[in-house]
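Data deposition worksheet. Section B asks for the primary sequence of the deposited chain exactly as it was used as input, without tags or linkers unless they were present during the calculation. Section C holds the resulting structure in token form. Section D is free text for depositor observations; keep each observation to a single sentence. Incomplete worksheets are returned to the depositor.
Section A, Depositor: J.P.
Section B:
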Amino acid sequence: MRKFLALILILTMVFVCLAFTASCGEKNNDEGENINNNNNGNKNDPDNPETVPDEETAAAKIEPDIPDANYGGHQFNILLSINGEFSNAGGGMWNDFEAEVETGDSINDAIYKRNVYIEDKYNIKIKVIEAQAADNMERPAAQKMLKNSVQANDNAYDAALLSGYATCQLASGGFLMDMNSMAPLDLSKPWWDQKANRDLMIKNKMFYTAGDISNVTNYATYAMLFNKQLVQEYGLEDPYALVRNGEWTYPKMIEMAVQVSGDLNGDGKYDFDDLYGALVWDDTMMGIVNSIGEKCAVVNKDGGIELALNSERVLGVFNLYTDYVYDKTKALTYQRQDWDGSKSTTMFSNDQALFWIQIMELVVRLRAQEINFGVLPYPKLDASQENYYSTVGSWHSGFICVPISQEDSVRTATILEALAAESKYTIRPAYYDIALKGKYVRDEESEEMLDLIFDSKIYDLGWLYQIGGYNERIMDLLRSFKGDFISMYEKNLSKAEKDIEKINAAFDEILN
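Section C:
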């Protein structure tokens, strides 16, 4: 009996210890990483939104692989192009490097915090030098300033943010460093645009690029808006559903657009007082080519540039698009009388157009307008096309580059990598999640479309290098309502071939 009682006592003590241990373990897990407990205090409780970490904060912040350094108060000079039409600061290209104080604006304050962090960490001072505006599309003022600095070897600029046209000419002229060779700068990191690596690399060299360090290429990415009220009034299909189902095509867009038009004032003519299926921007002629996955020029397997514009698919989308937009009772090619888009903005806000085919900057422009609109990618050629493609506009684009004249290229690479890495966690969410998704767009579906548009970016060296002048000549067809694409192509083919030969020879000389 004594043995039996002793055994009962031992077993009781064991059960008590086990229960206590389990209780302690459960408590410790509540304070740690137990995601299976649904108590109210659980940090991952799906029923308590405040406790659920978002994707960005849940993942560990990726730190750049760069050394700690003290640069003794060095003034880090960034040369910036001016483009008065396309500006967040009244006269300059979108300036993502300058913020003197916090103002409450999400993007400005993100720039300020990033700059302060990098300036303190590396003991530098970031200084933006704005070039004066130029009278033509190449905006050569900044280009000339960088050239003069390199030729004088005065190291005036550590880095630059210049237009696509300028960076291309500077690259082929031998004025820019290969950023792939600028350790510890690493363009394979997620804060640099991997689509730029895919499309802009020539013989494994990257002379200019884009990424989270600046929002310019986001604003310059092609997109189109649609008027929700007109979709409802005319009983049209849901454009969002068409995009999701892979059925958002040019024939479908035109089928919808032709149903919306009218001489509103009954004066017998169509102008800014009337109703249209689409407001058409000149530069859409480049966008439609890229939207179907085609390009003006590509990099071939040998790393050189070659022409790719003349294809059956390009001719197909050109004919589809122009057959519709050349009908002046159905679409308004507004830039002949409305270069800055002010009248068109009023028209779209007054429900006088179903679609506005342009770039992402439109979303920001319309932020103060009382209009219910949605955002879409440019359509596909047909439903068999696998992906949507959203080109980055050549004239509105801006790329980070580095002059070949450098006092300390390692220092420049370190600061650019640090700025880009920190921008992933400051500038990008401020632009994308807080400003663009939170302030400018009107619905959750548009947020989904933004993800699709930015994930489908495409860069075209043919437009950027202005090969054969095709970037302007294809727009001239729209401006004059001409439809003979083949004649335009053949007329400029000789120049295009000479341009390509010259560009490839220039890079051969630079890289050999």
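Section D:
The chain has a mean pLDDT of 86.
The longest helix spans residues 2-31.
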